[in-house]
Design goal:
heterotrimer; A: 530 residues; alpha+beta; Dipeptide-binding Protein, domain 3; 30% helix; 21% strand; B: 362 residues; mainly alpha; 3-stranded antiparallel β-sheet; 12 helices; 64% helix
């Protein structure tokens, strides 16, 4: 018994001795960020998630970069010119150095792109840069890497050659797939270059520590070309995948920022944490995809009927509750250079009228009490999706008693795998654009997108319009062609848009420089605490 | 003592003393005298009755989504509660005029579901008149409030109880059948066979529960039945161990040796002598497994692996309730109370059974 | 004793290998693989990756490859975290899970034993009922209800402790780990106290206690000096295997309190089909269970001289 008492006393003593005041958010030079999920990699050529982009984009910089409002701004390149036919772009690089002092040269960009399009790099996202001449051929090993349409004219001048004119190229070049690599480091240590002990960056922050599922620490790169304007000296990123627990940490003063908010909490947060919630339109759409290759979804009437019966207002206002807006087009309204297609004829009708019309369509397609419409709706079982599913089920069974829907929640990975292989009836999906352009949404319904065309929709006219728009240099004309293409899908409804995403962040009010924007990109070098 | 002058009580005692009681009757009497256990048994019966019969008589369906009634606190007139909510949000305000017996409000927009409350006597179409203090009909009641999808919580709680009880009972039954058969066989066979069989149990024991369940659920899909089997497939191990231990002890007893000497077949010995004597500890352990299974199912629901929407279980109700603790505490309190009462009752009943079957432990 | 321990360890090896093999096969049976992400890989690339991980071979062949690597102490690279190996991930996560688990275990053992003994000494009186009611509450209220309540109360309302996570600059501190440890320990305290109470009651009826009392000790003194040592035997049998579960991380606690332990890592790995990480955790868990079972049996023998290890 006495031994026990001694033991307990010793434990208490240890505990007290280890007591220092806990670290709180709000420090002048340190920023604590809740970053939603653990990055699977910090290598810019292997990454694919928005949460990875947050950290990678703070460490590296491409030819162009984001302004605080996520618009295109000069990055490593100070200026650029285009040839008459729009296929050759010439970039002039600024005098910048890597964090170890070596200069950033055009060859670093050439090496970066060649690495990205080398299939052995296992880049998941290389296809986004297939606009570059021979990119696809190099990726499929039909041509050597030297055939890639990029070359260094001199250490400070870079030339990029494209397959088709792409006026949105500066937009595309701020994406992490277009980041350069420090050749001198990668040649020495290979894929270990990304580890804290080897890593060399050209951005505002450098990786110091990475503990899996715990934290990622970066510190200010004093050799960054704009270092004098960078405020925070250290940043910690945490994988906060439970947005409610993260919210508690913000409220307890343990985090400065969290990159997600549970939508149903906004009203509560307005009252109890005023000034913290930041909500803005997001460049993405939540949609349902129908398996156009299987009966009965090969019939456009069935697809239209099901799309009509969805009560988007209820889902947006009562279920999601964060200011999401109902979507009747796959492309969000604020996407650049896009006039929008004509609105759907039934978008303004009241729900009872839409339901009646939906019933009529289904009856015309041959369904009724002796031929009920039965199918399974599969959805990702994370986030808001499980809450939307019962609403959809009810919306559809309200059309008629012979419409019977089963719900099935699936793990996200398996779900997308099923979508790609066409192993589903109706599935949910979300698409956040990679860059601010309508093409990046419409490609989801293009025949040559193959696996990523989840709905397996194949319309030759649609494909033709898209291919033609690629050759068009005038952004306005091009926008109209894309709109015409979208018009075709309005009737066919291969995918049914549901709502537009919003991006929601909790940001401590004393942080300046955070500008709400449609891409939800807020580079840490612009943030400061006043 | 002469039976002629004895009181009825004395007569009964004398009768019992002369007739004698079997151990089972002894146990039954002891159990019936245990107030806590009997009370728990009644509570469980009541809960089961409500869970099974409740949804039939309830005015709401468990999957009915009322678009106008999202997130309401417990109420007997949902329209009053909704107006109060809208008032708090600043979308409605009490009207400046008065009429007898009705509260009138002016709203920016006529709230959904209030079409009949419109007052045509006043020119504005957004005036809502509600009878003061009117209780409404049962279809206006939401005794435990509504959840964030506008579904009645009371009937969902009943459904959740159904699911949890069903999972608890079925998984326990599965584990019982497999565990008793396996353990009794191993114990009875003894020697090499027993060692190998128990080694297999050890191996399965060393696999983490969650891992096992995730694998089973992903291989076989998400059907309801699978959850029973997955949990049962993990719980039978302990049952098997206990049964084996008991069998080994029983095997050494004289009456078994006597049966063998008399020439009874192995299988009959197991069936007629071993299994009935196992029943005691097995029943006790089974009663105590049910709460464990209900908790295990709730853990799975918390991780998102439990039953599919729109079905619900106590675990799913609890985890959604815990998430909304500050804004909608009624979503947590009711399922938490239900789970606690059920588990308490099961545990008390199990303890009572153990006390009844083995008096030394009292 | 030494011979017994050695024999147990020897028998443990084939058991361990069987466990690993079983887990490996089960994982491979589940549909979906680690390379079915949202962005599809070109078929050529997917084939290359699969070959690199030996996944193009039959399952028994893959198992042999795995055992070969294990023999060299190589747990392999993570299939999802492209820059990390399984060993790195486990080394980072295990200390957190272990510390929370060990402290919860100690709290459960000490607290539970104290409560159980208290109740046993006041059997069937108010003290007993009160303690048992508290214990029952501990078992019947799930941790995903208790955890957020404690987090809200102490982290936000009172601001006495951090609500979740570790300290950014100091890592693991008492204030960060206190709430998770308590939440994890509560159900265990309840179970241990019930076990202790039952065992203590049984012990107090035995002859040697009666002798001690006949010699003039009070019940309390007899319990403390003689009864405890006998009564804690069932606790040892229970806590051995329970410790393995506690120390390899509780998923729920780690989720609620955002702790970077291996419990969460494990479930994520299973859901994402990160085979190598899952196998790594299974190996850790299996090893611990076998070891702790042995430890419990040895401890039992030390405490109860009547038991002879055969």
């Amino acid at each position: 018994m006495r031994a026990l008492n001694l033991f307990v006393a010793a434990m208490c003593a240890c505990a007290l001795a280890a007591c220092q005041p806990p670290t709180k958010a709000g420090m002048k030079e340190v920023l604590l960020v809740g970053n939603s999920a653990e990055p699977l990699t910090l290598d810019p050529h292997k990454a694919s998630g928005t949460w990875e982009n947050h950290i990678i984009g703070d460490m590296f910089m491409g030819l162009t970069t984001e302004s605080p409002a996520a618009e295109v701004a000069p990055g490593m390149a100070t200026s650029w010119t285009t040839s008459a036919d729009g296929l050759v772009w010439t970039f002039h690089l600024r005098d910048a150095v890597w964090s170890d002092g070596a200069p950033v040269t055009a060859d670093d960009f050439v090496a970066g792109f060649r690495r990205l399009l080398n299939p052995e790099t296992l880049s998941e996202y290389a296809s986004i840069q297939f606009g570059m001449k021979n990119a696809e051929a190099v990726y499929e090993k039909r041509l050597p890497p030297e055939a890639l349409g990029i070359r260094a004219i001199d250490p400070k001048t870079l030339e990029i050659i494209l397959e088709n004119p792409a006026p949105y190229l500066p937009q595309l070049l701020k994406h992490y797939t277009a980041f350069p690599i420090p050749r001198h480091v990668v040649e020495k240590v290979g894929s270990n270059w990304i580890k804290p002990k080897n890593i060399v960056v050209n951005g505002a922050y450098k990786l110091v520590r990475w503990r899996t599922n715990d934290l990622i620490e970066v510190e200010k790169n004093e050799r960054f070309w704009d270092a004098t304007n960078v405020c925070f000296k250290r940043i910690f990123y945490y994988p906060t995948n439970d947005s409610l627990a993260a919210e508690r940490r913000v409220r307890a003063g343990q985090l400065d920022v969290n990159t997600d908010i549970d939508g149903t909490r906004l009203k509560f947060l307005e009252r109890n944490l005023p000034g913290y919630s930041r909500v803005a339109d997001f460049m993405g759409t939540v949609f349902l995809t129908f398996n156009n290759r299987e009966k009965p979804f090969d019939d456009a009437r069935v697809r239209r009927a099901l799309s009509m019966a969805i009560n988007r207002d209820f889902i947006a206002d009562e279920i999601l509750r964060a200011g999401q807006r109902p979507a009747y087009s796959l492309i969000p309204p604020s996407v650049a250079n896009y006039p929008g297609s004509a609105p759907l004829d039934w978008a303004r009708d009241e729900m009872p009228k839409r339901r009646a019309e939906a019933r009529a369509l289904l009856e015309a397609a041959g369904f009724g009490p002796d031929n009920p419409l039965v199918f399974t709706y599969s959805h990702r079982n994370t986030g808001d999706n499980p809450r939307i599913a019962p609403v959809l089920q009810k919306n559809w069974s309200d059309i008629a008693p012979w419409v019977r829907v089963q719900i099935q929640g699936v793990e996200t990975q398996i779900h997308y795998s099923n979508l790609r292989t066409g192993d589903y009836d109706v599935g949910d999906g979300g698409w956040i654009a990679d860059f601010n352009d309508a093409r990046n949404f419409l490609f989801l319904m293009e025949t040559k997108s193959r696996d990523q065309n989840y709905s397996k929709y194949s319309n030759a006219d649609f494909d033709q319009l898209l291919a033609a728009s690629d050759k068009e240099r005038d952004l306005i004309k091009r926008g109209k062609m894309l709109a015409a293409a979208e018009q075709l899908t309005g009737r066919d409804q291969p995918m049914a848009p549901v709502v537009y995403y919003v991006n929601k962040n909790l940001v401590r009010p004393d942080i300046k420089g955070w500008v709400d924007n449609i891409e939800d990109i807020h580079r840490a070098r612009y943030l400061c605490r006043k | 003592m002469s039976t002629l002058l004895a009181t009825p009580d004395e007569k009964r005692v004398a009768l019992e003393a002369s007739v004698g009681r079997s151990p089972w009757q002894d146990s039954k009497v002891r159990l019936l005298r245990n107030k806590a256990a009997m009370f728990s048994a009644w509570i469980l019966a009541l809960i089961t009755l409500i869970a099974i019969a409740g949804p039939w008589v309830w005015p709401h369906k468990y999957d009915a989504i009322y678009e106008a009634r999202v997130g309401l606190a417990p109420t007997m007139n949902w329209k009053q509660t909704k107006i109060a909510q809208l008032e708090e949000d600043g979308l409605c305000a009490p009207a400046t005029y008065t009429t007898n017996g009705t509260d009138a409000y002016v709203c920016q927009e006529l709230p959904a579901g209030f079409e009949n409350e419109n007052s045509p006597a006043i020119s504005h179409a957004t005036n809502v008149e509600l009878k003061t203090g009117a209780r409404g009909t049962p279809s206006d009641w939401h005794l435990l409030g509504t959840d964030e999808q506008g579904r009645d919580q009371a009937v969902r709680l009943m459904y959740g109880m159904r699911v949890s009880l069903a999972v608890g009972l079925t998984a326990t039954l599965v584990s019982l059948l497999i565990g008793v058969a396996y353990g009794a066989t191993a114990g009875f066979l003894g020697g090499r066979a027993d060692e190998i069989m128990m080694r297999f149990v050890d191996i399965l024991y060393a696999l983490p529960f969650i891992f096992f369940v995730i694998i089973l659920m992903t291989v076989f899909g998400r059907s309801f039945i699978l959850i029973f089997i997955a949990i049962g497939a993990v719980e039978w191990l302990t049952m098997a161990r206990i049964v084996r231990g008991q069998t080994l002890a029983l095997k050494a007893r004289e009456f078994v040796e006597a049966s063998r000497a008399a020439g009874l077949q192995q299988s009959l010995i197991v069936l007629r002598h071993i299994v009935p004597n196992l029943l005691g500890p097995v029943v006790v352990y089974a009663t105590l497994t049910v709460p464990g299974v209900i908790l295990a199912e709730s853990f799975l629901s918390f991780l998102g692996l439990g039953v599919q929407e729109p079905l619900t279980s106590l675990g799913r109700l609890l985890s959604r309730g815990a998430a909304q603790m500050e804004t909608a505490p009624w979503l947590l309190i009711a399922p938490a109370a239900a789970m606690m009462i059920t588990l308490f009752a099961l545990n008390f009943l199990g303890d009572g059974l153990r006390d009844a079957l083995d008096p030394r432990d009292r | 004793m030494a011979a017994y321990v050695l024999r147990r360890l020897l028998v443990a090896v084939p058991t361990f290998l069987l466990i690993v093999a079983l887990a490996f096969i089960l994982m491979r049976l589940a549909p979906g693989g680690p390379f079915d992400a949202e962005r599809p890989l070109a078929p050529e690339i997917k084939r290359n990756i699969m070959a690199a991980y030996h996944m193009d071979k039959s399952i028994p062949e893959q198992l042999l490859y795995y055992f070969g690597d294990l023999a060299r102490g190589d747990l392999g690279p993570s299939m999802k975290y492209k820059d990390k190996t399984v060993a790195e991930i486990l080394a980072e996560g295990f200390p957190v899970s272990a510390i929370v688990g060990v402290f919860a275990l100690v709290l459960a053992a000490v607290g539970g034993a104290a409560m159980g003994a208290f109740a046993a000494l006041r059997q069937n009186r108010p003290g007993d009922y009160a303690v048992m009611a508290i214990a029952m509450a501990g078992i019947c209220i799930p941790p995903f209800v208790v955890g957020p309540i404690l987090s809200l109360l102490f982290g936000i309302r009172l601001q006495w402790l951090p609500a979740a996570g570790l300290d950014p600059l100091q890592g693991m501190t008492v204030s960060n780990l206190l709430l998770p440890i308590i939440t994890l320990a509560l159900p265990q305290i309840a179970i241990v106290s019930r076990l202790m109470r039952a065992s203590m009651i049984e012990t107090l009826r035995s002859n040697f206690i009666r002798t001690a009392r006949a010699k003039g000790m009070t019940l309390g003194q007899a319990a403390r000096r003689h009864g405890l040592r006998a009564a804690i035997l069932p606790l040892v049998s229970y806590l051995g295997p329970a410790a393995a579960g506690l120390v390899t991380g509780s998923v729920i606690i780690e989720q609620i309190f955002q702790l970077p332990g291996i419990g969460r890592q494990f479930v994520l790995g299973a859901l994402q089909r990160d085979y190598t990480v899952v196998m790594g955790v299974v190996i850790l868990y299996a090893g611990l269970i076998l070891l702790l079972n042995l430890l419990a049996d040895v401890l039992y023998a030390i405490l109860d001289p009547r038991v002879r290890l055969s």
